[in-house]
Model the fold of this input.
Amino acid sequence: MKLTCSKDLLLHYINIVNKAVSSRTTLPILECILLHAETDRFTMTANNLELGIQTAPIDATIIQTGEIAIEAKIFHEIIRRLNGETVTLETGENNAITITGGTSRFTIMGQAGDDFPSLPQVAQEEAYTLGQNELRNLIRQTIFSISQESTKQILTGELFEMKEHCMHVVSIDGYRISFRKSPLEHEFAPKSVVVPGKTLTELMKILSQEEEDKVQLYFTEKHVLFDLGIATMVSRLLEGDYVSYENNFTEDYKTKLIIHTAELIQALERASLVSRDNRKTPVRLELRPNVLVITARSDMGTAYEEVPNETDGDEMQIAFNPRYLIEALRAIEDEKVAIRFTGSLSPCTIVPLEGNAYQYLILPLRM
Amino acid sequence: MKLTCSKDLLLHYINIVNKAVSSRTTLPILECILLHAETDRFTMTANNLELGIQTAPIDATIIQTGEIAIEAKIFHEIIRRLNGETVTLETGENNAITITGGTSRFTIMGQAGDDFPSLPQVAQEEAYTLGQNELRNLIRQTIFSISQESTKQILTGELFEMKEHCMHVVSIDGYRISFRKSPLEHEFAPKSVVVPGKTLTELMKILSQEEEDKVQLYFTEKHVLFDLGIATMVSRLLEGDYVSYENNFTEDYKTKLIIHTAELIQALERASLVSRDNRKTPVRLELRPNVLVITARSDMGTAYEEVPNETDGDEMQIAFNPRYLIEALRAIEDEKVAIRFTGSLSPCTIVPLEGNAYQYLILPLRM
Done:
């Protein structure tokens, strides 16, 4: 293989495929990026066996076809630090690759391209199309409440449900439910899959924030493929039935607050300060007429906060893990939210003032 | 104690005294800040027994005198996050302190002010005056080569030598010597002391970057006091004789390069990339007519770099730990530097093109 291409362009694509490079593994080939040059097509691929990314063809002058796998970390560092505008990549004997650019020349020991694991083939039949930024938001606003416990394997992913012209994204960790939905461009037959959290975390990092950029999603029985234009990402799906969640959301409530999102976050963060153990000390909410009083108590001392709001309904006292409230509120971009309470031992639900684009349900703690 | 003061002002002073708060200690009082209010004077003090900082009097409305020690971490977090402009601090029973501001009220368990260790008394007789920014530079440009080995206690500090109208600052770790000097406002009797590296690291963080701000240094047999105006810092000195270093610097050389500082740093950083072990793989320098060739080799591969320069003298080959060269070069603000070599087994010396404000000496590695 021998080719020349723009250093900045190469670096841009390395940053994309890097998201699927294994960092600690017993299989050194998974720490590599596969460089593959055909007569008119140069691509890079990374694959950690859970998740793979392949670039679109990269603009390059291909002098000789071939392929080689090179350790991602040093390849990235070398390209990043080169002082020229173009870079030449040339394979040599014993899987060596020589990288030349600016005033530098590196020869790095690579591995045979043959040893690099192939990406799963995903049939691209029915495409669900979304804005890349919208998909990024759907993930960002729900990913924080996936389960961290590997014993609940299915809950370490997020449920993607396509139904009624919408894509629903749901995460549940046993203490709370995060729900977001977004309209699709067409109506489809109902379908639901569970995508691993790790895949979504890496996907978020490469999704564009430009309004017009689109992403196509393709699902097969075992895999999902995200086509971002500049690259495709393929991931396995989690197998098994997701938890049924819809009956947990109700329209009933005894008390409803309409409250300033940022003010509530800040008051909860301050009240959490008296907790030594990373915000695990409960905060107590007292719903009084038009004021929410937040208190917390530990061996360090006590905190008392007042947050003005519009209260509708009964007075009530209820306790929460403050982190759960803060994470849900931080995911919300609206200046104000509505919070519905049905009782001291029942979950609260955070919803928008208008519409139904999101719902966050959080279980209380016993006082 | 009861007083009211500006939240922002209080936060500013907490950030200063925080530099002398112990982070991990078996003596919880050392994790505290002492608040002390007399009728017309409110100050804060932190003291980790090696190093203490006391603020200048802080503008406050003092309602009741008294003192209390409060854990620095939570005090800082609470004041930082309060949403009001002023804050009221009031002590209660059992060493409690109530902090009120904006929509918040905290009561935190503190400790008796009596238990807080006093700062050493340092007689302020002869003052050495420097610009704060200049002292910051003197430290920043030498601190990286203090010894990290506690077996060489005296070398974990920096030598401050006052002589010939100048302050000299020196650090030596056994492999290299960093030397900087700066003119003093007056001539003094010769004096030399060794200040602990930890003290200087913390001092750097609170020294002003404004050109006109001055710092006075006072030395006694066992202590140094830095008077910054907004606060005074007191530190013990290291005891013992510092290593004699002056004979290591010579004016003789066989080869001299005049080279672009940033280009050399970047070439050394790139060549270090083939080292897996944090830049411990030696780099080899080949001094050829008007070009410096840098090479490195490890089991990962090889690196080859060319850096143009003005060479004067013999061709030579010499090897270095690249980190030592990079750290010295990064400390230098000049666009170009001179590097003097006397032989493959002799140290090189990095000096300015004009004047003698700094000298960096680095031992080579055997090839």
Observations:
- Chain B touches chain A through 30 residues (CB under 8 Å).
- Helices of chain B lie at 7-17, 72-81, 132-140, 197-206, 261-272, 322-331.
